[in-house]
Amino acid sequence: MEEIPPSSQSMDADALQKLIHLLKATDDPLIQEQALITLSNSAAFSVNQDIIRNLDGLSVIGGMLLDSVPTVKEKALNALNNLSMNIKNQEEIQVYIMEVCKNIESAPLNSDLQLAGLRLLTNMSVTNDYHYKMINKIPCFLHLLSEGSERTQIQVLKVLVNLSANPITTRNFLKAQVPSLLLLFDNCINTDILLRALVFAANLKKNMNNEDGSMREDEYSEDSVFSILCKDSTAFAQKLASLLHHPDTDVKEQVVRLLTQ
């Protein structure tokens, strides 16, 4: 087994190139994992992010998302996540967004593979540039919000907050059915989840208010996000009123933002 160089900022272009060549040449999942971990660690340094891109490392790592071994896919997603801190890298990584979404959807609920995919989408959705590639997966993300563990809920909410800030996603969100959405707006909910859920709802209401009345109520079903937040909003308003007494200042700030929209 070829020795994998240590992961540090001191890895030069030659060492990184050997690592990428090793990744292309081997079918051994254990070697692939170790190579991806080393690339992921080295990608934490901005200078290496450019080197890896210039060595065509992004396409090699992205190709690992098609691997049948979940742990290899997970390590590839972790590497792409670190590499996606770079705007030029995002331009190349965006071609894998649909594959990342497929992995999130097919992975076991709350698995490390699913969380790794959500972390990458969080970075890739910070700007609006690639939202159009994720918009059709909104029902999947909302399903994870309803069914996932706290760790999964926090991670998927980061994606939802980014997407909901973009007005082109508003109708897709409002039409989606999430009967359990109200359960998130409660004083007993983890503050990290509650705060992000409030920001998500506030983004949607802000974008709705900017629609100039073009939204028709009959477009939306009874369990839709629209019905919960707007049409039959008495229960939601009661939830918000109780949250005005929440001890967290940021939570109260978002509640006021919602109540005054």
TrEMBL record:
SUPFAM superfamilies hit by this protein: ARM repeat
Occurrences of domain Armadillo repeat-containing (ranges): 12-229
Location (main, coarse): mitochondrion
Gene3D superfamilies linked to this entry: Leucine-rich Repeat Variant (1.25.10.10)
UniProt membrane topology term: Single-pass membrane protein
Subcellular location as annotated: Mitochondrion outer membrane
One of the record's GO cellular component terms: mitochondrial outer membrane
Keywords, alphabetical: Membrane, Mitochondrion, Mitochondrion outer membrane, Transmembrane, Transmembrane helix
UniProt name for this protein: Armadillo repeat containing 10
